[in-house]
């Protein structure tokens, strides 16, 4: 690690010397921090929680290069100091392109969704998969008309985008999940949005290591691959999916699929899984629901109520470093606008199976006419 740090500082000093040589940009005055040994500076910066990096980058150009350097993330990994960052795909009116935001903590201890300007607009209703510190974006609509087969990989360290091999069939609104290094793309729409139904009867598979596409040899019996899926989660190499009519459990490695009618008894959507329990926030009943995937039983997390919402409000629950982040999109009838709120919740299971939750914080994170299309937790 010492050689990695020295290499970074040599390149950083060359850049600083060039800036200092410019008559229009006088060299910055050395600070107490930069007078410390090089290894100690990077070690200190690597230990700062990532939610503070946007603030730290304002200190100087040198600190900005620290927090955006891949070296910092290598050191954080070696220190075991990794954490999770929340990435939120937002459309202004559900008909425009996707723009990416990330959740940061402000000096007043409130949290706020901040746009990522270096990421270009992306297709609407694409599907998203997290792998390591990357987000894969699969397909989607261009202006609700043209459906694209494009695939992109977002590097969440450098906030850059790399185009990848295109899908065999262009789809939008599909289920895309990562199982054992392979992304399974299921269903979706290959026509205009009126039908939102794919004619593809097979499941497309993207090998993230070989960067190649294939299709499953046969589709699982007992379900229609081409139907529209409303929600999905993945855990323990199983993909749980909900359509209008049923909820299914698909095991890609075995090629099997089963109906779970108990899971389908609730209108679960935009959910996540933590310790074999599926969670989603029911905005109609103002409660956090939990489904034990092993016991196949529904329950309600006690101690969590985020307030009654107007009709048309929406929620999304994310496993955020073993805590739950619940995003609520509140419809404000008087002003005909929307507000996005977020709560961080710690859940604990007691003997007997009861699950209790504690809301650590809950505040407005974005106002104006904005619509959340997806929320992802990325390990950094």
TrEMBL record:
Residues 34-73 form the F-box domain. InterPro entries: F-box/kelch-repeat_ARATH (IPR050354), F-box_dom (IPR001810), Kelch-typ_b-propeller (IPR015915), Kelch_FKB95 (IPR057499). CDD domains: F-box_AtAFR-like (cd22152). Residues 100-366 form the FKB95-like N-terminal Kelch domain. This is F-box/kelch-repeat protein At4g38940-like.
